[in-house]
Every structure is written in structure tokens, then in C-alpha cells.
Amino acid sequence: MGVLSSAFRIFLQILTALILVRILMSWFRPRYRTSGNSWFYRLEEIVYRATEPMLAPIRNILPGGGMGMDFSPMILLLILQLVGSWIVQALVQAGL
Fold it and tell me: What is the pLDDT of residues 29-49, one digit of tens each?
């Protein structure tokens, strides 16, 4: 396995972890911002900035069903798994 394929695989793992953290943070968000939980909101902002550019286009394509659930993170995880595995496989076959 080449350096480029290993680096891309690590990138995909980090991106997957950020999306999962974003999902979990949305479930456990504190109701009020206080000095004791300000770290949560700072971390949430970092995760939001890293993932929103990929989630927004998916959210724009999805129909607004009004169910209150955002399925874009799950769809992005599926896309990352499919496309990512194809790219890693191509890089490994190319010896990169």
C-alpha cells in the first residue's frame, strides 16, 4: 500500500469521525450556554465548519419532508464509504 492511499484512507477516517461527532453533538447539545459548557460550543463550531461544506449540497438535494430529521449525514457517510473505497482501491492498484 502506497503513501497516498494510506493518507487518503486516514483522511476518510477523520472525516467519518467528524460526521459521527456532529451527529452525537446534535443529540446531546446543552440547552443553555454557560461558562462551564462553552468548550462544547467551540468544538461544535469547529466540527460544523469542517463538515457543513459537504453536508449542505446533500441537504439542498433532499426533499424537505418536515419530519425534523436531517438525513444528510447518513447519506454523506454512505457516499464516503462507497466512493472512498473505490478511490483507495484505485490508488492501491496504481501503487500510490
Answer: 877 778 888 888 899 999 999
